[in-house]
Amino acid sequence: MPPGADAYILKGVIHGRDDAEAVSIYRNCRAAMPERGKLLLMERLLPEQVNPDDPRDRTNVLVDINMMLMSPGGRERTESEHRRLLMQAGLQVERIVQTPSPLAVIEVAPANIA
Questions:
Q1: How many independent structural domains does the chain possess?
Q2: What is the pLDDT of residues 36-95, one digit of tens each?
């Protein structure tokens, strides 16, 4: 990662990785980020609990199953799973923007460590 950028964007990168690889990628991003830098993740978010009547939930679960078959260790994640992995890398979620597409934008910043 080139150091010092205002923002970094990862689209569809993390879902193809296991947890250890995801944390490693996040740590590399954190090492390059200035204190006011942002990381924008564009990923599908699995619901914490699937609503079978919600078409987005059903689609995201099917994509998750497909990802697990195609990419060893890869999978879609819930918001809480993303938060946990980001925290391990010294990052924190600032906000999540659900888009009309299946993807959400997760805005991430360096964690405030006191």
A1: 1
A2: 999 999 998 887 787 778 777 767 776 666 666 666 677 789 999 999 999 999 999 999
CATH of the domain at 72: 3.40.50.150
94 closest CA partner among 75, 112, 69: 112
Active site residue 15: yes
Residue 75 lies inside a defined structural domain of this protein: yes
> Taking the CB of residue 113, how many other CB atoms lie within 10 A of it?
6
Backbone φ and ψ of 54, nearest 5°: -95, 115
pTM of the model: 0.83
The catalytic residue among 8, 15, 46, 109 is: 15
Its domain, for residue 27, covers 7-109
Q: Is residue 16 part of a domain?
A: yes
pLDDT tens across 10-49, in order? Answer: 998 998 889 999 999 999 999 999 999 999 999 988 877 8
